[in-house]
Design a protein that fits this description.
With 210 residues, this protein is mostly helical. The protein has one domain. It has nine helices and no strands. The radius of gyration is 21 Å and the shape is elongated. The chain starts with a helix and ends in a 27-residue tail after the last helix. About 5% of the residues have low confidence.
Length: 210
């Protein structure tokens, strides 16, 4: 397997992982809407929702961490970008234009990936910097808090949801960008099309004993 084929395989695996991350976010957002719009649910959801949010937060943190893990054995977005940076001349404009099933233009390559004959290393370096910046607090939170309980026996959860959302948005944007570079796939979003999971909650399904 040559270098470009390796990158193509890696971006596909990373895409699947990020799709799972965003689908989980979609479910949590939709569940929160249900709770907020139903007074009865709000009054009786109690500790379930707090427990759910806490577990969801740590799930999301672990998923984001997976994409910023720089361990040499990790299949992560940041490791892929760093490998591309070190070998950026392997991605040429001529190769990119010749790969797509649809018509790909030199102008499109120049607009998105650099004005020269191959991938611009400065653009990749900037993407790495942006990813590290967006995930900085995620990394700090994960290193200090995940797996550790406070003196009340609860996991601390003091990270801003805005920071989590920013990191997810940055990861999604970069995966879409490098899918286009490596596989010529024109994604607009990585959130999978939702199934009709809410229908399960439209009928009473817990029967009280008489």
């Amino acid at each position: 397997m040559d270098k470009i084929q390796k990158w193509q395989k890696e971006i596909e695996e990373i895409t699947g992982d990020v799709e799972d991350l965003l689908y989980s976010k979609y479910h949590a957002d939709e569940l929160e809407k249900i709770i907020k719009e139903n007074d009865f649910v709000k009054q009786h959801i109690g500790s379930f929702w707090e427990h759910y949010k806490l577990n969801y937060t740590f799930f999301i943190i672990s998923k984001i961490w997976h994409q910023i893990d720089t361990d040499s054995d990790s299949l992560s977005l940041i490791n892929l970008l760093k490998d591309l940076l070190s070998n950026h001349k392997l991605i040429t404009k001529n190769w990119w234009v010749s790969q797509g099933p649809n018509v790909l233009s030199s102008e499109e390559f120049e607009e998105k990936f650099g004005k020269g004959d191959f991938l611009d290393s400065k653009l990749v370096s900037e993407d790495i910097k942006n990813l590290e910046g967006a995930a900085k607090e995620i990394k700090q939170f994960r290193n200090k808090n995940v797996g550790h309980k406070d003196n009340t026996g609860k996991f601390p959860s003091n990270i801003s949801y805005t920071k989590i959302k920013d990191a997810m948005n940055q990861i999604e944007a970069l995966v879409i960008k490098y899918q286009l570079l490596l596989t010529q796939s024109g994604y607009s979003s990585l959130t999978p099309v939702a199934d009709d999971w809410q229908v399960a909650f439209t009928e009473p399904w817990i029967k009280k004993e008489e």
